[in-house]
Amino acid sequence: MTHIGANPVRCKRGALVLAAALTLTSCGLLGGPDSGEKVAKKFVGALGGADVAAAAALTDDPDRASEVLRRTFDGLGGEADADFTVEQAGDSAFTYRSDWDFGGGRTWSYSTTVPLTTADGSRRVAWSAAVINERLQGDQALQYTPVTDTRAVLDANGMALMEPRTVTVVDVDSAALVPTVRTRLTALLAKAVPGFELAAPRTGEPATPDERVHLVTLRQEDVEPIRAELEQVPGIHLSDQLRLLTVDRRMTSPVVAGLRATWEARQKDSAGWRVQSVDPEGSVTGTLTGGDPPEGTAMRTTLDPRLQYLAQQAVDTEPRAAALVALDSGNGQVLAVAQNAPADRSGPIALTGLYPPGSTFKTVTTMAALQSGAVTADSVVDCPGTANIEGRVIPNENEFDLGRVPLHTAFAHSCNTTMGRLAVGLPADALQDQAHEFGLGVDYVTPGLTTVTGSVPSADTPAKRVEAAIGQGENLASPFGMAMVAATIARGSAPLPQFIGGETTTADHEPDPLDPAHVRDLKAMMTEAVRSGTATGLSDISGLMGKTGTAEFGDGKHSHGWFVGIRGTVAFAVLVVSGESSGPALDIAGHFLRPLDEQ
């Protein structure tokens, strides 16, 4: 027997796509006598190129060899990498080594001794499944199987928030969607999804024969009652997959998508694995190697289940698109993120939707004015019904006129004319800089969460500063961004948002702490707004401070409604799209907070 020893012939199987001729040539396998060593090199070269036909042709049973080799290459996955090395060769047998790499440290190496025989006057591999691995029998093949990390995603209390569960993906061949099938599918799927409707047929070019239409993804408890009937529909395809689902199916928070994406990404690193033997029908007959998922702490979020439940209930009382975000001002933990079904149709607006913040931005304007030293909370200021400020005429809502009042009173009653006058005297970038210190306009990278806080450009003309002062013009904010503003006021400095335990958030700006005296003044103004100002509808809620906002958009005939609030360490923002006033946002805040007073 020839020992290949220190200079083995090695062929690498990369993505399983090399052609046989290229592989054999690159490994230097053409030419030479028909010896055992020659056959060994050709066979291992064919394996290195994943060329089933070439490898099978070197055996004494090409048909059976081709089938088992094909199933093995398919079963071990297209992303696997492998080295095949001839270790020693003789006239009656050769030994080769297989080094498989499935990624993420999942490796498997073994040696196989392959007997040789003579068929049709040529040296051939004496075929059996053991040629692939000596533990295979009959027509068994190899299959790689990831073992999912089945630990749940937890809420702040350590209870299961989301769990990996089996779902059924329902697709249908587009060519099969004739009117009778469409009617049948609509009736069937409506049993699982009330109100289900099939999308209208496409016009234009006819569908290709192999094109599929995704219909719906169903939980097991929903699909089982109709599975048998679905399977009888022409062109239907049912595929069971593992998905991370909310334990409470009523939870539709926009954080779910980010959690699912984070969990799926972690599966690549945390999943266990098995290489198993399977029979021609695909049944597992044994396990050859593998590893279990690592033990450790499950992914734990900061969501407070009680607050999340109340937030969802609160936004669901509003027929227009509405969102609510609540943060723990002490540590930046995301406590609740909720939006209703009308909001869902526009995407995750609670986290990334940008809208003019209206008068809720007066928290920023007032702090900038206090920081400048131009006024104090008790400074007497003008609050006329309308004002011509540097050529820009600005009215109060319904042109209410308070005359000359302390700044804290003008804030509590949301005097546009007062705020416009204050902003004109500030530097062009004063409101932008102050917004950044509140976390508004800061880019946070929070693991498990995709957020956009907002945008506050520099206001380089008096007219722009007037508009910016009352949260109009080019100013934009998301509910998450305004919740950050509330949390910053409550804490005295902008916290780093936190969502997944043990994961660190980064930001493109590190805000400076606010002046404690100015923070006290601003909190007192927000308390006054609830007790005797624009938010008196919530004056029965103990310890609440806040600021209402109405923000015109488009042609100015319609407005969004806002409310930002602080109660204890809970800082939150509510948005009602096209709410026309702050009233609907106040109503949602009341539904969210009043049950907490009852505890």
UniProtKB/TrEMBL annotation:
<dbReference type="Pfam" id="PF00905">
    <property type="entry name" value="Transpeptidase"/>
</dbReference>
<feature type="domain" description="Penicillin-binding protein transpeptidase">
    <location>
        <begin position="323"/>
        <end position="580"/>
    </location>
</feature>
<dbReference type="InterPro" id="IPR012338">
    <property type="entry name" value="Beta-lactam/transpept-like"/>
</dbReference>
<feature type="region of interest" description="Disordered">
    <location>
        <begin position="271"/>
        <end position="297"/>
    </location>
</feature>
<dbReference type="InterPro" id="IPR050515">
    <property type="entry name" value="Beta-lactam/transpept"/>
</dbReference>
<dbReference type="Pfam" id="PF05223">
    <property type="entry name" value="MecA_N"/>
</dbReference>
<feature type="domain" description="NTF2-like N-terminal transpeptidase">
    <location>
        <begin position="37"/>
        <end position="140"/>
    </location>
</feature>
<protein>
    <submittedName>
        <fullName>Penicillin-binding transpeptidase domain-containing protein</fullName>
    </submittedName>
</protein>
<dbReference type="InterPro" id="IPR001460">
    <property type="entry name" value="PCN-bd_Tpept"/>
</dbReference>
<dbReference type="InterPro" id="IPR007887">
    <property type="entry name" value="MecA_N"/>
</dbReference>
